[in-house]
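Retro notes, structure queue

What went well: the backlog is down to a handful. What didn't: a couple of records were mislabeled last round, so from now on we paste the full input next to the output in the thread. Example, using KpsF/GutQ family sugar-phosphate isomerase from Caulobacter vibrioides:
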Amino acid sequence: MTAFDAVTVGRRVLAIEADALRTLSDSLSEAFAQAVETIFDAKGRVVCTGMGKSGHVARKIAATLASTGTQAMFVHPAEASHGDLGMIGPDDVVLALSKSGAGRELADTLAYAKRFSIPLIAMTAVAESPLGQAGDIVLLLPDAPEATAEVNAPTTSTTLQIALGDAIAVALLERRGFTASDFRVFHPGGRLGAMLRTVGDLMHGDDELPLIAADAAMSDALLVMSEKRFGAVGVVDGAGRLTGLITDGDLRRHMDGLLTHAAGEVMTHAPLTIGPGALAAEALKVMNERRITVLFVVDGERPVGILHVHDLLRAGVI
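Corresponding output:
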């Protein structure tokens, strides 16, 4: 197959799946809202289940829900029939996936949900199927062609399942008022975890702060800059409030007669600052946009820390 042929096939597949996603979006009904509210109101977990490719998608949906504030787990339908049904409690909600809705492996889980009045959300393309008939809420997938029409391998259908699972997770996220700080609790590792750390986690504080009074001589300011090694010094007033900042750029602009000046005469007034509760990602955005390498961290108007771009680099934010 030539490169041109491969690109043509790829575009055809993506076009088929994109059309199916648009159809799914247009067909979304009140059943979706009911599913979200049922999960939101549940005291237990969302138990996701499915066989084959639908099972892989169910695992993914469970992981997405769990990482966005909704307790969830995956139970394999075959294992459920051999004891794992005991993992499903009366306060749980079952989310069962099957395109045809006729998989024999799901039968015991469906019967268990009915027996113990556990809410069952069915995600299927066939409303008249055993799964569709058993569901208390039916999320109906459009009857869209698979991208591999000749062999009918699950492609479009699993894309629709994943997208609908994402829609449920995001709707629940917004319903709960789930924030980036909440998200950070479940993602402490990797670059994503680093981006979700706060400025307060990464900043230098206390004795590391390069601070000097406004009336201090510039010779003293240079000593502080050299000692603290941040390439900047903060200027504070008598009440300890940050009123200015001296950087290498300020030194160059006042090179002529620099040592005859006081810090307050050289400083840049009203410097850009950030709060300790801000995310590291926000600090990085500010530094990139303003083309600066250091930010003072303030609580109110008082400096409580300093953050250098190298701190973000060491933490894996960059």
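Agreed that this is the format going forward. Reviewer comment attached to the example: The radius of gyration is 29 Å.
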